[in-house]
Write a structure and sequence with these properties.
Largest sheet: 8 strands, mixed
Strand order of the largest sheet: 5-2-1-6-7-8-13-14
Keywords: Signal
CATH class of the largest domain: Alpha Beta
Radius of gyration: 28 Å
Strand content: 5-15%
Shape: globular
CATH architecture of the largest domain: 3-Layer(aba) Sandwich
Helix content: 40-55%
Order of helices and strands: HHHHEHEEEEEHHEHEEEEEEHEHHHHHH
Number of domains: 2
Distance between the termini: 70 Å
């Protein structure tokens, strides 16, 4: 019979039941104990249920990975020093204008390295030298010829393979039949994990690489935010152009640095040594063994910073292109950052929010400040002309339009669900320069 004490009674029963369940849940942890005399740990697990918590902490690699994460260093990777390597160079009939990163890449090739030159035309002759260096170790192939690598280079059976194709030629290389053959053979070619990809200029190549199962955490990825430039006079042949800047100090008194080059993967140590050795030799830098311009990091860190530079390039190019139509003068990144700060921050935040919702990539705290400061003060960015170019369209603003805006609208159309454009401001500014009017009419 229901009375005034019934709710209180029901509450007491519920509390007692919950307490009993909690006790039964924790009891296996308390009663489970291993003795030195018993070696049958499997039998102990049969008597009492083992929880997933025990399974995680019994994995020594997981514990070590977490410790390395707290120490802010990569784990489970054997950092190898620089050694003779293989370079895959793409020879184009219309080469891109040289920039500091490409100048550094040219100087990275040594006489002990093996060079494979890929060309769109049928190779008729083997060049005697490239960039003034003898090329007895150079093999010239057509883009459709089988891609073969030497069994060893200077006694090394395993070696890094640097893919030095320009950003606009990466799609041609990744989709070529020799690369597809290496990827699709069973088992896959062991040379694939030796591929090293260098990114620079704010180009987003993730869709090209992922679409061909390249550029993942099993391979080596490097983000270059530095380069060298030929010196007009003096004892040094080149001058270093370093894109990193100091934003101040943090709460621990450490310098906050933005724009540093970073690498990860199997051959990250070798790539780091090669870059720093090349910079020291060409720029006459003698700072000792502790001098460093390239960080070693995790793949997720490199990927996040790659998108930061992609946001920087796409946002400032588009905003600069729109406002240059009214001033009739080209604008630099520094001019756009100082003159249109609110628009830049708004577009930067819009692009980063779209990444979080589509690719589950979240920028680290303070990335807006880093992007704005790099555009305003970074040596690699501040004097760059802010304009949307046809040559790099597919890997900058075109990537955001095709992979984010149009892809979202296509999914909404198939599901018959009305969804707004995730990049409304970006699409609106593209309309101002006539890039997507036919799409969103």
């Amino acid at each position: 019979m229901y009375s005034a004490r019934t709710p209180l009674l029901l509450l007491c029963i519920a509390c007692c039941t919950l307490k009993a369940q909690c006790f039964s849940f924790h009891r296996p942890l308390a009663t489970f104990k291993s003795t030195s005399s018993s070696t049958n740990t499997r039998g102990d697990c049969d008597k009492v249920s083992c929880t997933s918590l025990q399974a995680i902490w019994s994995n020594e690699q997981a514990v070590q990975d977490y410790r390395d994460f707290l120490d802010n260093k990569p784990s489970a990777v054997d950092w190898k020093p620089d050694q003779p390597s293989c370079f895959v160079v793409f020879e184009s009939s219309s080469p891109e204008p040289s920039n500091p990163q490409q100048e550094l890449i040219k100087e990275m090739i040594k006489e002990t390295d093996h060079v494979i030159t890929l060309t769109l035309d049928d190779p008729l002759t083997f060049p005697d030298e490239i960039e003034g260096k003898k090329t007895d170790h150079v093999n010239t192939l057509s883009i459709d010829d089988p891609l073969t690598f030497p069994d060893e280079i200077s006694g090394h059976e395993t070696y890094p393979i640097y893919i030095l194709t320009p950003p606009d030629s990466l799609q041609t290389f990744a989709s070529s039949s020799p690369v597809q053959k290496l990827r699709k053979m069973y088992p896959p070619s062991p040379h694939l994990e030796d591929f090293c990809f260098l990114h620079y200029g704010g180009r987003i190549s993730e869709s090209i690489l992922r679409g061909n199962n390249l550029g993942g955490s099993d391979q080596t990825t490097c983000l270059l935010n530095l380069g060298i430039k030929a010196a007009s006079s003096g004892l040094r042949s080149h001058n270093l152009i370093n894109g990193e800047i100091v934003l101040g100090v943090d709460a621990m008194g450490q310098k906050k640095i933005a724009g540093k080059s970073i690498t990860c993967g199997k051959w990250a140590g070798s790539l780091k040594d090669r870059i720093e050795t090349t910079v020291k030799a060409t720029c006459g830098i003698d700072e000792g063994d502790n001098w460093s311009v390239v960080d070693l990091g995790f793949y997720r860190d490199v990927r996040r910073i790659l998108f930061e530079y992609g946001i920087l390039s796409s946002a400032f190019n588009l905003i600069g292109e729109v406002h240059s139509k009214t001033t009739s003068e080209p604008m630099t990144y520094a001019t756009v950052a100082l003159g249109y700060t609110d628009e830049c921050v708004e577009m930067i935040q819009e692009l980063s929010s779209c990444l979080r919702g589509s690719l589950a990539v979240t920028m680290m705290y303070g990335f807006e400040e880093r992007v704005m400061e790099l555009a305003e003060r970074g040596e690699m960015w501040k004097s760059k002309i802010a304009q949307v170019e046809e040559e790099g369209w597919e890997s900058t603003n075109g990537w955001w339009l095709n992979e984010m805006s149009l892809a979202t609208l296509e999914k909404a159309k198939k599901a018959r669900i009305p969804l707004p454009d995730p990049l409304e401001m970006h699409s609106e500014y593209l309309g101002f320069i006539g890039k997507n009017v036919e799409v969103f009419e």
